[in-house]
Write a structure and sequence with these properties.
Family: Belongs to the tRNA(Ile)-lysidine synthase family.
InterPro entries: Rossmann-like_a/b/a_fold, TilS/TtcA_N, tRNA_Ile_lys_synt, tRNA_Ile_lys_synt_N
Number of helices: 15
CATH architecture of the largest domain: 3-Layer(aba) Sandwich
Strand content: 15-25%
Number of strands: 17
Keywords: ATP-binding, Cytoplasm, Ligase, Nucleotide-binding, tRNA processing
Largest sheet: 6 strands, mixed
Organism: Maritimibacter fusiformis
Radius of gyration: 24 Å
Strand order of the largest sheet: 3-2-1-4-6-5
Bound molecules: adenosine-5'-triphosphate
CATH class of the largest domain: Alpha Beta
Pfam family, one: ATP_bind_3
Length: about 425
Amino acid sequence: MRLTDPDAPLLRQVCARLDDTGLTRLGVAVSGGGDSTALLHLLAACAPDHSVALEAATVDHGLRPGSANEAATVAATCAGLGITHQTLRWHGWDGSGNLQAEARAARYRLLAAWAGAQGLDAVALGHTRDDVAETFVMRLGRAAGVDGLATMADDFHRHGARFLRPALGLGRDALRGFLRRHGLGWADDPSNDDPRFDRVKARKALETLADLGIAPETLAEVADNLAETRATLRQITADTARTLARQQAGDVVIDRAALARIAPGIARRLLLAALGWVSGADYAPRREALAGLERAIAAGRAHTLHGCLIQPGDTDLRVSREYAAVKHLATPLTAPWDNRWQVTGPDPALTVAALGEGLRDCPDWRDTGLPRTTLMASPAVWDGPRLIAAPLAGLAQGHAATIHPSRGDFFTYALSH
Ligand SMILES: Nc1ncnc2c1ncn2[C@@H]1O[C@H](COP(=O)(O)OP(=O)(O)OP(=O)(O)O)[C@@H](O)[C@H]1O
């Protein structure tokens, strides 16, 4: 492809992402639509200069008759660019929830698993400035707050994989212009015109707003302003966490009286950060569920939410992992357990699973200062049914358990969530 002057700003934006040190293998999620196809070509144009190897994947949801052909077209485009491509198939909708939401969730899961299997550092998605404006309008309808209305993150983790949105600053028209200039084709997804879908309704609403003099770009700017506000709130929350909370093993322990005195919005964010850090869940709990938790805390009652156990004590509020949420998790000693514990020990053939009732075989557990509920949900090393070690419960036997670097400490987590 011979690049021309109008391509320069597009390449600059997309390629700036590749300067990220540590990014040597990048995946691109290509649906075959205009945005992600343009992203693929732009990345292909600049990846060699940054010594980044590209791979691409298409999720075939199997929901439309033409979907396999679209995936094959992307595969052919990638072959022409010398980029390895894989089609990831979704094994269908079980009829629960909303089809679009289920398909999206499955897509992220499949892409994350692909990134893990291929050893990719991150996966690039083709979201654009138009998606920012459309999402803003869609979220208005859900009475979202700052977090929902702010511009989507351009760098985030989901299902253990890192995702990037290198085209977030570019408009859809600019990307399509690039494809047309170079005679590159793309597929138009017929669901983009299906008026039953929220995104299509949002596009229509944007046209109406534009008639009123409110351009999509203006809404995207509002979303950017809110993203700044969100970053400020996160900073305040993280600073507050440092003074009111401490991390004890895998628990977050918060000064209860002080929590009741701070601004409710910050107290709620602190609680949400603790729930997110302890559980590793990608999504926040629902508003009503959170309100139920706040009532329980005010009444001094223990509560479970989001795979966490929240226990108000005389002076502290403890957020720990709920035993029931990890009871059935078992991983080899070499892999992270519950996506956040790294256990080390001499025999990699052993299994890591929750300590549970094995606590009875840990004579020194009371000396650890950790509650029984925390220890039951902590990682232990097993040889079949035989307990070998429970590092957090004082039965180390040459083993150690530390928070996995991918989760980081609670205070760092609070800064970005
Ligand atoms: N079938 C697919 N296969 C591979 N990647 C896809 C597929 N569909 C979407 N993507 C990726 O996701 C990006 C955004 O697409 P779209 O807005 O349809 O997705 P979404 O998952 O609904 O987004 P959101 O994160 O806003 O919910 C695309 O540019 C592309 O990178």
